[in-house]
Automatic annotation (TrEMBL):
GO terms for cellular component: membrane. InterPro entries: ALO_C, FAD-bd_PCMH, FAD-bd_PCMH-like_sf, FAD-bd_PCMH_sub1, FAD-bd_PCMH_sub2, FAD_lactone_oxidase-like, Oxid_FAD_bind_N, Vanillyl_alc_oxidase_C-sub2. Signal peptide: none annotated. This is FAD-binding protein. GO terms for molecular function: D-arabinono-1,4-lactone oxidase activity; FAD binding. Keywords: FAD, Flavoprotein, Oxidoreductase. Residues 16-178 form the FAD-binding PCMH-type domain. The keyword Nucleotide-binding does not apply. It holds the Pfam family ALO. The keyword Ligase does not apply.
Length: 435
């Protein structure tokens, strides 16, 4: 095991930095157990790609990315067991090589499995990623191991647990046979796509809408399962579409000084990059996951029950279109759909939900990005929940109102971590624990 002393921990977009005394790079479960047992306080991190301040802030840190092996497959059960520091892209490659898939993938493949599960990472038209986990081992605060399996009541608390109950060590995923999607993409007016959501969720196997604020348009992506041999007339649109992120960066360069420029930039970006149609076929991985991107963005994301989405969307749109409101929002706001589950801190606890992302393409100036504030006020008012790995300011009081199981989770956390070993300053405040 490698140990680094007295360094600086920096998140991927450089918005968070912390000094640490010891940083351990673990490669085995025993090492993980040893460090946790001997530390008074310790935090662990994966790819550092969360915008929320949950991954560091303590003197002792564990880098989990070196704990990254694929341990076993069960061909009969379609399961794969991995160490929690494995990068998601490597998991997907391994699963696809077997002819399997995990049927709901996020937009990013560079995150670790442990980080993804801890923060309730999700994709669209399926469940949270953690719902495909059938068992895991957890390293508890005293360094001992606990195996948790499907069917145990504890699994519903552990699936999304912000790394506050223990460190996930090995994880088993249940996979499904891989499938091919026939994907169609194209722009629609808000008046067209908004009323069609429920009908499309029934009709299509995949639905995602990239909403384009300040243009009255959404870019609708649908996918239908087809036989992999089916011929599709592929149309990937003009070649210059691949330069969208570069163009956005240029157009948004001064939007932190003059936020209203965003409104003009969005109209130009719509014309240039979202006004044509596309059609192709591919696996869920090909259709969903952005394979490369710069590290200059900052993210918030809010979720709301499917039944309330239209009302909340209309309110958000009206609010951000007021010139008195400085919330000019960079393109796109990613709208996705997640089906209900039983995990205590899941956004989809007992109800189908819609998620809506909010991106600032200038990470360094994210503190002054009004949209993060506006979206939080509106969603909280309607009982919406923020993504645990992204930017929000709500704390314990708000969560006790919007999560049925918030108090139960807090009690369990205190039982499992009585000395608050795993709480950094951010989580201490989030759970309203003693400093
Ligand atoms: C560009 C971009 C795109 C994104 N797209 C999506 C998306 O499509 N859908 C979505 O839902 N989210 C998305 N996210 C959010 C992302 O999935 C989460 O922030 C995720 O937690 C990042 O994983 P990580 O490995 O970087 O974790 P880190 O940020 O390093 O850690 C996150 C948390 O997990 C804890 N943790 C890490 N390892 C373990 C472990 N082994 N056991 C227990 N706890 C652990 C850490 O202590 C910390 O609290 C995106 C983020 C970015 C930057």
């Amino acid at each position: 095991m490698k140990q680094e002393k007295n360094g600086v921990w920096t998140s991927w977009n450089e918005n968070l930095t912390y000094k640490y005394k010891s940083l351990y790079k673990v490669t085995t479960e025993q090492e993980l157990q040893e460090i946790i047992a001997k530390s008074d306080k310790v935090r662990f991190f994966g790819s550092k790609q969360s915008s929320a301040d949950i991954a560091a802030g303590l003197e002792n840190l564990i880098d989990i990315t070196t704990y990254n092996k694929i341990l076993s497959y069960n061909d009969a059960e379609h399961t794969i067991t991995v160490q929690s520091g494995l990068i998601l892209g490597d998991l997907i490659d391994a699963v696809e090589a077997k002819g399997w898939c995990i049927p709901c993938l996020p937009d990013i493949n560079t995150i670790t499995i442990g980080g993804a599960l801890a923060t309730g990472t999700h994709g669209t038209s399926g469940k949270l990623l953690c719902e495909y986990m059938t068992s895991c081992t957890l390293v508890l605060a005293d360094g001992s191991l606990k195996k948790i399996e499907d069917g145990d009541e504890l699994i519903n608390a552990v699936r999304v647990s912000l790394g506050a109950l223990g460190v996930m060590s090995t994880i088993t995923f249940k996979c499904e046979p891989i499938y091919t999607l026939h994907v169609k993409e194209g722009p629609e007016n808000d008046t067209e796509w908004l009323p069609k959501i429920k009908e499309r969720l029934k009709k299509h196997d995949f639905l995602r809408i990239l909403w384009l604020p300040h243009t009255d348009k959404g870019y609708v992506i649908t996918g239908d399962k087809i036989d992999s041999e089916t011929e599709i007339k592929e149309d990937l649109g003009p070649d210059y579409l691949k330069h969208r992120r570069k163009a956005s960066k240029i157009l948004y360069k001064y939007t932190h000084i003059f936020p209203w420029i965003t409104s003009i930039a969005n109209k130009l970006l719509y014309k240039g990059f979202f006004s044509s149609k596309k059609e192709y076929k591919g696996s869920l991985y090909q259709a969903t996951v952005t394979k490369s991107r710069g590290s200059t963005l900052e993210l918030a994301e809010w979720t709301i029950g499917l039944d309330k989405f239209t009302e909340v969307f209309e309110e958000l749109k009206t609010e951000i279109n007021k010139w008195s409101n400085k919330s000019f929002i960079h393109i796109p706001m990613d709208i996705r759909f997640v089906y209900k589950d039983k995990s205590w801190l899941s956004y989809a606890y007992k109800k189908d939900i819609v998620t809506i992302g909010c991106v600032s393409r200038n990470a360094a100036t994210a503190d002054t990005y009004e949209a993060f504030k506006t979206i939080e006020i509106i969603f909280l008012k309607h009982g919406g929940k923020p993504h645990w790995g992204k930017r929000f300011t709500a704390k314990d009081t708000a969560f006790s109102k919007i999560y049925d199981k918030w108090e139960d989770f807090k009690v369990l956390r205190q039982e499992m971590d009585p000395t608050n070993k795993f709480l950094n300053p951010y989580l201490t405040e989030l759970f309203n624990e003693k400093k």
